[in-house]
From TrEMBL:
UniProt cross-references to PROSITE patterns, sorted A to Z: RUBREDOXIN_LIKE (PS50903), TPP_ENZYMES (PS00187)
Key word Isomerase present: no
Name of this chain's protein: Rubredoxin
Family (UniProt): Belongs to the TPP enzyme family.
Keywords, ordered alphabetically: Electron transport, Iron, Metal-binding, Thiamine pyrophosphate, Transport
């Protein structure tokens, strides 16, 4: 039994299975098909067909390259695949279909798939893969992959490439993917020879994990379908444990510095986000208030007596004063971005797992190590502090700040004031929920006024890209199906990603999308005001988001009055589908 390929459209006629659509029974040799028969796909006549001599995936006994790739990725724990299929990725997509432990989520735009993969890693520490076709599918990933790169999230990107016969400039849907992905990846390669499959695959996963970034593999269409010898289909590499322990000498210096400090302050960054318990014990032991960066918001619940809030543009003036008055600042996995504005002249103990990032500030003890390991080591040998002023210092910062935030949350103004929205959300969103936040005034108010009580929260930190919030929520619900998921977004940012609302409906991912609908690119309007430009090009003409949600098969409600907000959010939380709460709000920061 042979397989015949149409040279016009590449349809495969398999003698074993016949062709149901043109009534050719299984087992019919191609030569026995009447001459009047036409290709069911493009209507070419029989003379257009050529016998295929090799690589028929349906009769293969050995695994194909694609199947070996997916099997080994699953072995590495990579089970979630986000993307859009197409001609040059059919082999990979089929291998995902066949693997019981792999799951494909079909997105409507590759950018959302890449944002979701980035968010998935930020939320879980596990890797999700993006899968796209060569050319436009690959280029559509860019902003999502850059988000991962900037926030040091591990993501794998597996992209189809045109058949090797058509490689080179000028091929249909062919681009130089190695060159295109180079600036965004920590590893980047094309499998031009099936014997290279596992070597490239293993290196890709190792680099993505160890170097915290994006690894990209392109697989030409014809290679995807080739059978692979088991000798070349088995993984040899391993993912090392990359917990870095600090050296003893540096640790001793750090302990001495902490011991001689009378007003230490801890600043926890994203690098500390997996170690809330060690952080709390450490702060208690050395009697130091804890501040966090915006990205690490929620590492300790807001009401904790040692947590003093955020340092930076969404933080309180009291937090800044506290750092300026400290005789020692201990930074744990902090990126030193301009949004945090760590004072340069304070004495710093800087802990980071990336040696290149060490040495910020003017008077710094660099401690190379994983935050969890460093805290564990220090806690083994540091005695309890002789002072006990941290709780008082925290209260002095928090009390006036709380008063300000309460006063801002005016419950009568229409359009509804953003701080009031944050007040209501702080009250309603449960402590074990997942929150994905977008960029703009919506994110600014969340950072500044939302009170965390244990939730996991994810955002686009360094790239600060609009359109992250909603795919981030999709990733959250895929990762934690049993938890409630909330997206806090703007009318501008949501519109960039809203094509995938149907994806949340299709895959039954109930979530609540709170749109702060101010009919403006609100943050840009504020920036124009700060820089004394006249307001221009920020007004938004929006669709009816509630009708849109319903037309997608979800639910929605609009809220225009403050007194309606609480019940609307409670109602949304009780729905069994994705829901939009379209909150008509005030674009002005302060009135
Ligand atoms: C992809 C992208 N384009 C542009 C910007 C610049 N930018 C930052 S905030 C913002 C406005 C966001 O508007 P909206 O989503 O409505 O949120 P709002 O500020 O009104 O709450 C813009 C255009 C960006 N950060 N990301
Ligand atoms: Mg807006």
């Amino acid at each position: 039994m042979a397989v015949w390929k149409c040279s016009i459209c590449e349809y495969l006629y398999d003698e074993m299975s016949g062709d149901q659509s043109t009534n050719i029974p299984p087992g019919t040799p191609f030569s026995s098909i009447p001459d009047t028969w036409r290709c069911p796909i493009c209507h070419a006549d029989k003379t257009a067909f050529k016998r295929v001599l090799e690589n028929n995936p349906s009769t293969a006994i050995l695994p194909t390259v694609s199947e070996a790739i997916i099997k080994n990725l699953v072995h590495f724990g990579i089970t979630e695949y986000f993307g859009v299929p197409g001609t040059s990725s059919l082999g990979i997509i089929d291998a995902i279909r066949k693997n019981d432990n792999a799951r494909f989520t079909l997105f409507r735009h590759e950018e959302n798939a890449a944002m979701a993969a980035s968010a998935y890693n930020k939320l879980t520490g596990k890797i999700a893969a993006c899968v796209t076709i060569a050319g436009p599918g690959a280029t559509n990933l860019t902003t999502g992959l850059y988000d991962a790169k900037e926030d040091r999230a591990s993501v794998l990107s597996i992209n189809g490439q045109v058949e090797m016969q058509y490689a080179g400039p000028g091929g249909f849907q062919e681009i130089d993917q190695d060159a295109f992905f180079r600036p965004v990846t920590v590893f980047n390669n094309t499998i031009y020879d099936k014997k290279m499959t596992m070597k490239i695959l293993t290196m890709a996963v190792q680099h993505a994990v160890v170097r915290s970034g994006v690894a990209q593999i392109s697989v030409p269409n014809d290679i995807q379908k080739q059978e692979i010898d088991p000798e070349y289909a088995t993984v040899h590499g391993v993912i090392p444990n990359r917990m870095i322990r600090p050296d003893n000498e540096t640790l001793q210096k750090a302990i001495t510095l902490i011991h001689s400090s009378t007003s230490p302050v801890i600043l926890a960054g994203w690098g500390a986000h997996s170690y809330p318990y060690q952080l709390e014990t450490f702060a208690d032991r050395i009697d130091a208030p804890i501040l966090s960066t915006f990205r690490a918001k929620g590492i300790i619940p807001d009401e904790h007596p040692l947590y003093a809030g955020i340092l930076g543009t969404v933080g309180s003036p009291g937090a800044r004063t506290m750092v300026e008055q400290a005789d020692l600042l201990i930074t744990l996995g902090v990126g030193f971005s301009k949004m945090t504005r760590v004072p340069e002249h304070t004495r710093i103990i800087q802990v980071d797992y990336d040696p290149i990032r060490l040495g910020r500030g003017k008077d710094t003890l660099p401690v190379y190590g994983d935050v969890g390991e460093v805290l564990r080591e220090i806690l083994q040998s540091i005695p309890s502090s002789s002072h006990s002023s941290a709780r008082n210092r925290v209260e002095q910062v928090k009390k006036p700040w709380e008063k300000i935030r309460k006063a801002e949350a005016d419950d009568r103004s229409t359009p509804i004031r953003p701080p009031y929205i944050m007040e209501i959300l702080s009250k309603i969103i449960p402590s074990d929920a997942i929150i994905s936040v977008d960029v703009g005034e919506n994110g600014w108010w969340f950072g500044r006024n939302f009170r965390m009580k244990g939730q996991k929260f994810v955002m686009s930190g360094y790239l600060a890209t609009m359109g992250f919030g909603f795919p981030g929520a999709i990733a959250g619900k895929i990762a934690y199906p049993e938890k409630r998921v909330f997206c806090i977004t703007g009318d501008g940012g949501f519109a960039m990603a809203m094509g995938d609302f149907v994806t949340a409906v299709k895959y039954n991912l109930p979530m609540v999308v709170i749109i702060l609908n101010n009919h403006e690119l609100g943050m840009i309007q504020v920036e124009q005001q700060i820089e004394k430009y006249p307001n221009y090009a920020t007004a938004l003409h929006n669709p009816d988001f509630v009708l849109y949600a319903k037309s997608c098969g979800g639910e929605g409600t609009r809220v225009e009055k403050p007194e309606e907000l609480e019940s609307a959010v409670i109602w949304a939380t009780s729905q069994d589908c994705p829901v939009i709460v379209d909150v008509i709000t005030d674009p002005r920061r302060f009135v």
